[in-house]
Structure prediction request, 365 residues.
Amino acid sequence: MNTTGKLIAFSFVTLLASCSGGNKWHLDGKISGLDKDDIVVLEGNNQGYWYPMDTLKVSSDGSYSYSREAQGYPDIYRLRVGEKSVYFPIDSIESVTLSAAAPDIDAHYTLAGSPQAENLVRVDSMLLAVAAKSGSAAVSTDAELKRELGRMIIADPAGIVTYYIINKSFAGKPLFNPAEKSDLRIIGAVANAFNERRPEDPRSGYLRRLYLGNRPKSPQSVDGEVPVANEVRAFDIKLFDNTGKEHSLLEETSKGKVVLLNFTAYTAEESPAFNVALNKVYEKYHSQGLEIFQVAFDADEYAWKQTAKNLPWITVLNGPTDGDKALRDYNVGSLPAIFIFDRNGDVVERVSDISTLDSSVSRRL
Prediction:
């Protein structure tokens, strides 16, 4: 089955946290190959500085189980053995499994248990692949790698893995260097997203200071102001509606409106109910500046047109011959998927729960 076919397995993702573990996150796994004197250290991060938080009790076969009180906001932690470390994200009160083989635990490990964990593994795998192919020094300047990381940032600009990417160094060089103008723009956009979605998170203040501390001074600058211009240019989508008119996503996001980008499939069983929910939000906020740019992944063009002609918003068809570039650009792995662009054309949120869409849109208007 092709990628589009797989994605048409339409799914509403509901993230449920078990109440049985209380307000704690859990980490377990196995670290093989440890020497008798090896200590497994859990470390936290404070604005780039890693500090020890605890040591893990490891059984004779290397297995361990650990839990800790959740702190109210997502964070990145790491396990360290000697000079080697493995990083893992904690979003809330989930359970994560981390197994590794000493002594080189940073090169031989598995991490699972949450979407954030899987994305962090993906980031590290991409870095190691470039290093193996072109050398460690080339990682921070590899154009294709930066594009892939940019897609992940756009998909979740206020996510903890995005924070990890922004602050990640490889071979002593930052992946996103605040001294580079293009990288600083991306840092500014991430700072913007964190300020809007996570105002109480201490990382928001850190990102803000990181941006402002490296921003060139200009007569128009206002001290303490984080930019709201197009810091990260979204990937454009140019497709045709049911009348044959071409629409451009970037053109719509440049009109000063709040734009909701939706990837969907009209042939999916849940599609009618999903569009009803969209329509409620559209009718409520369209007069205040909301536009919907809906991309349908359907093989039957005639059936798509019968639905599209009755919808009040922009709906375009991404048919089989159009490929899946749009899905790859926005790091979409299942349908439906919703992104919100603010009035400045920035991707500011990825909505995973349709029930929160109304409040997410209203905050931008």
Q: What stands out?
A: Residues 24-131 form a domain with the Immunoglobulin-like fold (CATH 2.60.40). Confidence is low (pLDDT under 50) at residues 1-21, 219-232. The two ends are 40 Å apart (CA to CA). DSSP finds eleven helices and 17 strands in the chain.
